[in-house]
Amino acid sequence: MDLHLKIWRQKDRQSEGKLVSYDLKELNPHMSFLEMLDTLNEKLITEGDEPVEFDHDCREGICGQCGMMINGIAHGPLKNTTTCQLHLRSFKDGETVLIEPFRAEAFPVKKDLKIDRSAFDRIISSGGFVSVNTGQAPDATAIAVTHQTAEEAFDSAACIGCGACVATCKNGSAALFTSAKITHMVLLPQGKEERSARVLNMVAQMDTELFGHCSNTEACEVECPQGISVLNIARMNYEYGRALFFRKK
Q1: For the 4Fe-4S ferredoxin-type domain, which residue ranges apply (predicted)?
Q2: Counting Cβ atoms within 10 Å, is residue 139 exposed (0-12), middle (13-18) or buried (19+)?
Q3: In angstroms, rounded to a whole number, what is the distance separating the alpha carbons of residues 213 and 182?
């Protein structure tokens, strides 16, 4: 199959970027989207041009590094699918494909399709952890956790931090990411000790990073490759209000 690509090229975060057109022919429709970009880069290097920079690591839908906007959709046209799990059979022969980096004030473009997601790291560092004594692990049955609670915590913990929620949100909000990290810890006994400090610190850091506010459009849940529920945002708001109430007492 043949594809006409329009790819965002930007030398660095200080430079102005632009869309550049490329044509690729005789591609295997079973090729992954990132393998297609690899093929393009091999062609560019052979021709003496600069290859296209893009983030990737595991290529198994686990790490969340491969995110990009494909025809205006975070991670592309398939629901609950990361860019690395997307294949060319999802496109038509001869189709024009627009490829851009995730757009958000808190995600500056480093080069081409590569963005700086370190704002997420700073949110996690502000409170997305549990302070426990190290040493011998307690018996697995020492702390009772119901099956339903464990499943709900796991559903929230499934967030891979790709940033699709931010790129999709018209406000550039990180509420879904932050709330998922807060929820999966507050549901479990080990996370309850620091629940108030955690939510206050993580929300404050989220605001410091210049993410926008959530206006409940739920676009984040629609484009999330892991299907993280917006109910996490409701729990974060509850936890935040609870923390403020007890801080005032």
Answers
A1: 150-179
A2: exposed
A3: 17
User: What single letter denotes the amino acid at residue 35?
Assistant: E
- Which parts of the chain are beta strand (E)? 3-9, 18-24, 69-70, 73-74, 96-100, 109-111, 114-115
Query: Locate tokens 């198994």: which residue?
Result: 60
- The CATH number that domain 116-246 falls under is 1.10.1060.10
Encoding tokens for residue 183? 């929820």
Model confidence, pTM: 0.92
CATH 3.10.20.30 in the chain is located at 3-102
Element (H, E) at 221: helix 219-223
Segment 159-213, tens digit of pLDDT: 999 999 999 999 999 999 999 999 999 998 888 889 999 999 999 999 999 999 9
Chain region(s) in the chain for CATH 1.10.1060.10: 116-246
SS3 percent helix, strand, coil of the chain, rounded to 5, is 40, 15, 50
Region 28-32 average pLDDT: 96
Q: Which superfamily does 3-102 belong to?
A: Beta-grasp domain (3.10.20.30)
Return the CA Rg of the chain: 20
